[in-house]
# Entry
Amino acid sequence: MTDKYLAEPDLGFIKEVVGLGGDSVKKCFQCATCSVACAIAPDNKPFPRKEMIAASWGLKDKLVKNADIWLCHECGDCSTLCPRDAKPGDVLSAVRSIAIAEYGTPKSIPFLSSLGKAVNDKTKLPWLLIIPAIWLGLMAIITNAFRGPLTEALGHHWTHGVPADAIAHTNFISTWLVDITFVPLSGLVALMFGLGLIRFVKDIHENAVLEGKTANKDFNLTAFLSTFVGVLLTILKHSKFDQCTENKERSTAHMMVLYGFIGCAVVTGCAVILLYLFGAPGPYSQLTPLKWLANISGVAIVIGSGLLIKNRLDKKDHPSSYKDWYLLGTVFGIGITGLLCEMLRLGELKVLSYFLYYLHLILVFNLFAYLPFSKMAHFIYRTVALMYAEYADRK
# Structure
């Protein structure tokens, strides 16, 4: 006999789903075409039909704590074939945004909760840009106003030995100050993700046990972690994307952005090691392999995000929401400003190069500081959800 469940609709949750791009949720008449159409839905309790039912009823807990909302790659197959134009992919995307806000913000810190909501609110965008603009502006003032005294006090350690008249971005905003900004920021973001993932894994396991989606009543951390390598290979190969048909071409663009960021992360790590361990500051020669990787990665990010933007513009019958444009705009902006500030530096256009570098850092700050609250966080939560699906044997 099926367990009884007392439905307690949350009207505020329904409004939130509608406001985040899931405005078609009430069109669903539960025909299950979407679950049949989805090539990557598990045979055991497939999505997204059951999620559409829960969303239309405002059952927030059943959705936010449901790992299946992350297995969806929003390829659009279900939305295209839906006879009611209910767009299940868009609804699940909206639910994921709500889940990101739930797990990305400790409820005991009201400021972070407000910040999480601000990231998905287009009226708050100016403030999200003004905050890093002011901070980085102060870093530029400190670099130029106190360069002489600090160099005398700390020697060439402050300037890393870069001549004051060289066109180098560290002469505009000191590398020390950039690192003092972004290293603690990255640590804080990692901590927030860590705390959120602890709750996330606990919730999705309890949900899976309750709904009969796993035979593992007791959670086995070792078995769960053992799925990581296989899931990572799936992500790197974009195997799930390739099973889609409606937006299959998005796979290549998505991979370009992914590998572009991986390349930039490798370059940044190598640059830090060269600077602080070997005392070799940039800018580096264009002939070095490190520069090749940096430039190729930057181009991949620009082309990949540009193609994703074009793809969304072409889908006039499936307009994208603000959260999608915010992420795509940030990623494209990071790539284009990074490449342009380097080109302008090589062209010895000092002022323009420094200005583009300033804009670049503002966008990088937006990407990292607001990462736990933006759509970009889906990379973390989807990875963990895919690991759990493997662990629970949801084939």
Notes: The chain has a mean pLDDT of 88. The first helix runs from residue 11 to 19.
